[in-house]
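Try this one yourself first.
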């Protein structure tokens, strides 16, 4: 479980939920009669097991309630809780020749266009290999990708202006937990570059103000944990004013589905991963479906554009280049590309939810980002969203039919168990009573009764003659 007293952990809570689900399955199987009670001893074991499972279920459910994911449909606070983020590495790498060439090309286009690049060309630059290359270029070009006019930016209000807002404390809590996403404090002894502690505190305050400005501007949009992981990336690259303007736009299109009253739309949207996987690798799809892994592992990826789960700052901003220049649902295709890329690893695991979720939820450090983005673009062009939506609907119908069959089978098993128990009781009576009522047993019983009666009469006569009443 999370050590945080106020915020649960998605990953650990997921494991807890899996444990509760497993206990439920065991309880149901016992109830359905899959454990056959042959003797009275097994009957006692059965009763004890039901009591034990009920106690464990109750205890773990209490723990789950304390540390659960606060999904919007599960609490009035409506805040998605995500586990502690990966520590972000801000290590700088020297530019390779291809990156230098790409940077020079972009700088030339900016010079020729008077600081502007035609939007279609800019999107292609951001999507193609190495993206926008440097943060200096991103600071200029990210606003252009989302249609922000940097000449019309408004100054940021003060932090104290938001302290009475009902979402303020939750936002501050999440921002304080996101220190791993900020550059580290410099360490001269170990030659670690970074930013001064005071600057980190200032960045945290700026991040809080940025998020609160969006929430206050759009009261119908609901804040979720993970939103701050997106906002901090834009803050680090572009500064407070530009970051707010970008998040203002993204909150009303790319992330609007995630900021609704409930998370139903987001949860259903994640199902769009599976048709792509099925079309490309049916064997892998069947393996994952049989494991029951679901889509929880991909929730932080989708909510934060992988900013929460990757531990390389360079990889995060490269993905943001791609997503800003791509259609809204591109993160789903990147997710499918990652699953397909890791197929060999997945097949080596046990086909159960815990093993598969554990592997998928942690992204490896050596992911070939450029290769995955190229695969994602190919998948997006290959499978239209209308085609994927129809496949999702088909899969949902099959799942509903499967559930109905399972419920019907469980009901039939319970009825069969009840009939077997009744017939077993009737068999016992019909088997023993005829054996007790044979002529021989009747004569013996009658003779024994006469003997007992005679003895009783004799001893009573003797007691009376002796004066004993």
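Now uncover the answer:
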């Amino acid at each position: 479980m999370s050590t945080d007293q106020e915020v649960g952990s998605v990953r650990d809570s997921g494991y807890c939920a899996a444990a509760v689900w497993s206990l439920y399955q065991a309880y149901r199987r016992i109830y359905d009669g899959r454990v056959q009670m042959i003797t009275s001893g097994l009957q006692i074991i059965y009763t004890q097991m039901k009591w034990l499972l009920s106690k464990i279920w109750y205890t773990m459910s209490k723990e789950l309630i304390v540390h659960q994911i606060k999904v919007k449909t599960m609490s009035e606070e409506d805040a998605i809780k995500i586990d502690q983020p990966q520590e972000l590495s801000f290590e700088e790498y020297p530019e390779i020749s291809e990156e230098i060439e790409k940077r020079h090309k972009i700088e030339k286009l900016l010079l020729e266009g008077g600081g502007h690049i035609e939007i279609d060309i800019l999107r292609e630059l951001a999507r193609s290999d190495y993206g926008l290359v440097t943060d200096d270029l991103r600071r200029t070009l990210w606003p252009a990708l989302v249609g922000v006019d940097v000449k019309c930016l408004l100054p940021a209000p003060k932090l104290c202006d938001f302290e009475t807002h009902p979402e303020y404390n939750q936002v501050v809590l999440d921002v304080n937990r996101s220190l791993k996403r900020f550059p580290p404090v410099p360490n001269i002894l170990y030659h670690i570059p970074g930013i001064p502690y005071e600057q980190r505190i200032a960045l945290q305050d700026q991040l809080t103000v940025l998020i609160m400005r969006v929430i206050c501007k759009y009261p119908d949009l609901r804040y979720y944990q993970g939103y701050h992981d997106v906002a901090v990336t834009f803050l680090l690259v572009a500064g407070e004013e530009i970051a707010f303007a970008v998040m203002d736009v993204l909150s009303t299109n790319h992330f609007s589905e995630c900021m609704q009253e409930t998370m139903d739309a987001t949860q259903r949207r994640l199902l769009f991963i599976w048709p792509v996987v099925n079309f490309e690798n049916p064997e892998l799809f069947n393996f994952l479906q049989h494991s029951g892994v679901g889509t929880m592992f991909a929730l932080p990826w989708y909510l934060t554009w992988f900013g929460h789960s990757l531990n390389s700052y360079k990889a995060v901003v490269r993905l943001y280049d791609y997503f800003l220049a791509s259609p809204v649902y591109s993160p789903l295709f990147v997710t499918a590309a990652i699953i397909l890329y890791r197929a060999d690893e997945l097949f080596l695991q046990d086909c159960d939810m815990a093993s598969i979720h554990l592997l998928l939820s942690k992204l490896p450090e050596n992911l070939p980002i450029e290769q995955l983005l190229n695969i994602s673009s190919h998948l997006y062009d290959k499978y239209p969203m209308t085609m994927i939506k129809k496949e999702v609907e088909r899969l949902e119908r099959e799942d509903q039919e499967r559930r109905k069959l399972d419920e019907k089978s469980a009901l039939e098993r319970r009825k069969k168990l009840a009939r077997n128990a009744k017939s077993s009781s009737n068999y016992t009576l019909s088997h023993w009573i005829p054996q007790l009522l044979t002529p021989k047993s009747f004569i013996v019983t009658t003779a024994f009764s006469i003997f007992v009666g005679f003895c009783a009469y004799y001893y009573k006569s003797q007691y009376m003659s002796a004066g004993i009443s």
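Discussion: Confidence is low (pLDDT under 50) at residues 1-8, 29-48, 50-81, 187-192. Residues 99-133 form one domain.
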